[in-house]
Structure formats: structure tokens, C-alpha cells
Amino acid sequence: xxxxxxxxxxxxxxxxxxxxxxxxxxxxxxxxxxxxxxxxxxxxxxxxxxxxxxxxxxxxxxxxxxxxxxxxxxxxxxxxxxxxxxxxxxxxxxxxxxxxxxxxxxxxxxxxxxxxxxxxxxxxxxxxxxxxxxxxxxxxxxxxxxxxxxxxxxxxxxxxxxxxxxxxxxxxxxxxxxxxxxxxxxxxxxxxxxxxxxxxxxxxxxxxxxxxxxxxxxxxxxxxxxxxxxxxxxxxxxxxxxxxxxxxxxxxxxxxxxxxxxxxxxxxxxx
Length: 271
Description:
The protein has 271 residues and is of the alpha/beta class.
């Protein structure tokens, strides 16, 4: 489960990530690109590309000159490469806090669901600005984990109610950098970006059953899986049963749909 100095996300398996988050990042990518825009013949950098969902969504909208996705996880980079058949797209390992590109190299620099896992997020935003050309667009989005992602609250509130030791972990999840109102916009302005706009993006997370929600937690990717790995089997079963009761809400097993909100911001590199 690699964790680098530039990311605290637990990354182990591309298929596991797709089940856990990829299916939602694909949805959010469309809302995000509506917000940030995309144009033909641009050079674009996707910072924290994961398994490539934002890059693939952008490439389906416009014909880029070049689109590079970078991620700290070689597992995710290789997974994105395995899905790619577009010669204009490329994926490579990279550090968001030290981008291996010259100044002003890209027309558009974007990041989806990555900045809240970067301890030195101020440095990452400064790097995103540095590699964007004057007049270029820099944009990012992260989940509103405290106030806008219902499945996350369901899990962590239930865990904290059962196990006092989970309170510290819950607090860590809900106070990650850039996840509170105005934080992204302040970080972008502090980096010297202009015309900064912040917006709340809305999508939904749909599950066919409780197992559809819980199954990815039994994998090796993400913060919930990392927490579950610390529990004894009896405690894990107890937590699963309690989360299942929250999912069912006194009704029969079956599909559920939950709101999921993200904070998004965009700014312009001064000319």
C-alpha cells in the first residue's frame, strides 16, 4: 500500500480503486469539466490522475495537443496506461509537489480528488500554477467530505459511535486540507492566481445493494479499508452490521442513492 511524502492516500489496486471511487470520479469529472472548460489543441496536465478517469473524460470532449496524467502510485499509473489507446494521452509517475515540467508548459492544469490527500497542498498548488502558461487555467476539485458525502458520513459516524478510538480517525477524514468552504479559493489566490471562482459540484452515488457499498471497503485502497484493517474480526463484523442498518433505514434491502458534493475552484495565471 504505497504512501508517498506527497500523498496520504492508500493505493494498492487499480480495480479496487475503480470500485471504491473510480465510478464516482467518472461522474464528477463531467461536472468538473463543465466548470473548468476544455478546448481543442491544448496541452493539459492532470495532477493526481489516479486510474485516468478525468483524462479520459477530457479527451472524449476535445482533441488535445497533448494530455499528461501524473500520479504518485505506479499501480494506478500502470492501470491507466492499460486502459489507454490514445497516442495523445500519456501517464507517468510524478510528485504533485515537484512537477517534472518546465515553467509555462501547459495551457490547462487540473486536479480531481487529489489535493486533499497532499500534506503540502500549498506547494502542490504553487507547482500547478508554475507549469501553467500565462493566461492558462488551473482548476481543482475535492469532496466536501464533512458536509456533502453521505456514504462517508454514514460509515465514519457509525464507527465513532461504536468505537471511541474511531473519533480521531473520523476527525482526520472530515478536516483534511482543502475540504472546507473557501479553502481551495484561498489557496489559489495565495498562489497568485487571478479571477478565482469557487463552486459546489453535485453528483450522486448509487448503490445496487448494501454489498455494493461495503464490498470495496474490504479491499486495500482508501482510508476506510486502512481503518478496517486495524480492527479485530469481531469488531469489523459489528461495524458492518451497524452500517448495514444505517443503509437499510428500516426498509428492505435494495438500491439506494445518496448525494455527493465537491468543492471546485478555478483560476487564471496572470499574464
